[in-house]
Design a protein that fits this description.
This protein is of the alpha/beta class. It has 4 domains: 114 residues, Tetrapyrrole methylase, N-terminal domain (Cobalt-precorrin-4 Transmethylase, domain 1); 128 residues, Methyltransferase, Cobalt-precorrin-4 Transmethylase, Domain 2 (2-Layer Sandwich); 119 residues, 3-Layer(aba) Sandwich (Rossmann fold); 127 residues, Rossmann fold. 34% of the residues lie in helices and 18% in strands. α2 crosses α3, α11 packs parallel to α12 and α15 crosses α16. The two termini are 53 Å apart. The structure holds S-adenosyl-L-homocysteine. The site of S-adenosyl-L-homocysteine (SAH) has 24 residues, from β4, α4, β8 and β10.
């Protein structure tokens, strides 16, 4: 039986990938084909299965959009072949997006389709710029208007008199090229020249910028600031509320472009934490993990668990590799029986907790020194300690615990390697002066970073803030002649982020500087 294809016209939302609907995302996850254009955030494409066909249909600077008839034909053709087609459209598919034309074509062709609404740019821009589109004290009506009509036609289809006089808040899409005409016509038809106007570009993304003025002066301000599309123009008294309600651009790391270098598996959580504070985050891992060359020593330690007193794990990686190995050996957490679990810090403890295990001991300072102090206090003389660790880890724990009389088994549990790819990307980012800060959460990531970038790393890092999670990483930086600008008092991700916030609040160079060019 051949499967019957179907097209989903899905609103991608305005840019922030979090603003797609749950239903829209579900459609993407089931898609065989995704047809998208430049206002749909590329991050959303990652939701589609790897094997899904991804078709870009324009338009961006220079390149031309696929003609609408060809898009229509493409949607119909793939659906006829039994495919689940997601037509991903910026904002809402039925707001100035020609989604209506696509749907009519599909209906004519007898092809099944559904429409998943999206957060339209006007609504999103207003929300993220701090402008309630309606407010009882200001206005009770709202109009969405296309500003894209051909000026030669004298915007013939727009009834300026009714727009100017009859609608409270006006939101113009695609209006930047005609801004002068829009403001002139509104004033000519009775709107006060003092009416507030806000223009929001790249709304809901880290590049969001908002320009405010009045019908009288906004054109000059746009020119002076060289303010470019895509942008929506919001006209009306409600724009005044922005001075009280702005929030998105007020977040402490907004406009800062930060590079994180941790391993891919660990980057996502950190990235989200930074993004929550408003930063734009790029991730280029300078480290990747691999199994040890020889599992023998770890397996021997696992076999000896029944006679082991303490298991020390000093990273979430260690937890991951340890449990992966247990599983490969046909074992599970029960193998840990009476062993007491020592986690270096809350993240490692949380990784244990995900496996249904509670860490017995977690030091106050989340470092190797803390582990040693804690075990010194508990007493380890004559005890057996299993400490499988990263290759090249500092040997402090094993050495100190032995000095305390413990019998320490410390095999290599995983290796950390420098990725083969990424060096060129790092160099390009630094050469373009595209970064405000580079963040290192381990000595090894810094060391690899320098090796990947090359000898002139120090020179390329000029003007970029360097953030280090703690003293060992900072010492490595110094070894390479690099100055560390940000280091928290405690070596946790939360403290590191607070230190970054402090730093950027203090230095306050033009936010968004890194975004030029
Ligand atoms: N269907 C879309 C609109 C498509 S028309 C929606 O519902 O949002 C394209 C216009 O949308 C652009 O010219 C601009 O005016 C607006 N737009 C889209 N994304 C935007 C964004 N992130 N910031 C500001 N304006 C945006």
């Amino acid at each position: 039986m051949t499967r019957i294809g179907r097209v989903y016209l899905v609103g991608a939302g305005p840019g922030d990938p979090g603003l797609i609907t749950v239903k829209g995302r579900d459609c993407l996850r089931r898609a065989d084909v995704v047809v998208y254009d430049y206002l749909a955030n590329p991050a959303l494409l990652a939701e589609a299965p790897p094997a899904a066909e991804r078709i870009y249909v324009g338009k961006s600077r220079g390149r031309h959009q696929l003609p609408q008839e060809e898009i229509n034909a493409l949607l119909a053709e793939r659906a006829r072949r039994g495919k689940i087609v997601v037509r991903l459209k910026g904002g809402d598919p039925y707001v100035f997006g020609r989604g209506g034309e696509e749907a009519l074509h599909l209906r004519e062709q007898g092809i099944a389709f559904e429409v998943v609404p999206g957060v339209s740019a006007g609504f999103a821009a207003a929300a993220y710029a701090g402008i309630p589109l309606t407010h009882r004290d200001y206005t009770t009506s709202l109009g969405l208007v296309t500003g894209h009509e051909n000026p030669e036609k004298k915007m013939s289809r727009l009834d300026w008199e009714k727009l100017a006089g009859g609608v409270g808040t006006l939101v113009f899409y695609m209006g930047m090229a005609n801004l002068e005409l829009i403001t002139r016509e509104l004033v000519r038809h009775g709107r006060s020249p003092r009416t507030p106007v806000a223009i929001v570009r790249w709304a809901t993304t880290p590049r969001q910028q908002t320009l405010t003025g009045t019908l009288a002066d906004i054109v000059a301000k746009v020119r002076a600031a060289d303010f470019k599309p895509p942008a929506v123009i919001i006209v009306g008294a409600v724009v005044e509320l922005r001075q009280h309600l702005a929030w998105f651009e007020e977040r402490p790391l907004f406009g800062r472009r930060l590079l994180i270098t941790r391993a891919a598996e660990q980057a996502a959580v950190f990235q989200q934490m930074l993004e929550a504070r408003g930063a734009e985050v790029l991730s280029v891992p300078t480290i990747t993990t691999r199994a040890p060359q020889d599992w023998g020593p770890v397996d021997a330690g696992i076999a000896a668990l029944p006679n082991t007193d303490f298991l020390v794990l000093t990273s979430t990686n260690a937890v991951d590799f340890f449990f992966a190995r247990l599983r490969d050996l046909g074992l599970d957490a029960r193998a840990l029986g009476g062993v007491r679990l020592v986690a270096v810090g809350p993240k490692t403890a949380a990784a244990l907790s995900e496996r249904g295990l509670r860490a017995d001991l977690v030091p106050e300072s989340f470092q190797a020194e803390g582990v040693v102090e804690l075990l010194r206090a508990v007493g380890v003389a004559g005890k057996r300690v299993f400490y499988p660790h990263a290759e090249l880890a500092r040997d402090l724990i094993a050495r100190e615990l032995r000095a305390l009389g413990a019998e320490v088994d410390a095999p290599v549990l995983y290796r950390t390697l420098m990725p083969e790819q990424g060096g060129a990307e790092l160099r390009a980012l630094l050469e373009k002066r595209a970064l405000d800060a580079v963040i290192f959460t381990a000595s090894s990531t810094l060391e690899n970073f320098v090796r990947m970038v090359g000898e002139d790393a120090a020179h390329l890092l000029e003007g970029v803030a360097l953030a280090s999670i703690g003293p060992p990483t900072t010492r490595t930086a110094q070894k390479f002649g690099l100055t560390v600008h940000v280091e928290p008092a405690h070596s946790t991700l939360d403290d590191l982020i607070e230190a970054l916030v402090d730093y950027f609040t203090r230095t306050r160079h033009e936010p968004g500087m890194a975004h030029q060019g």
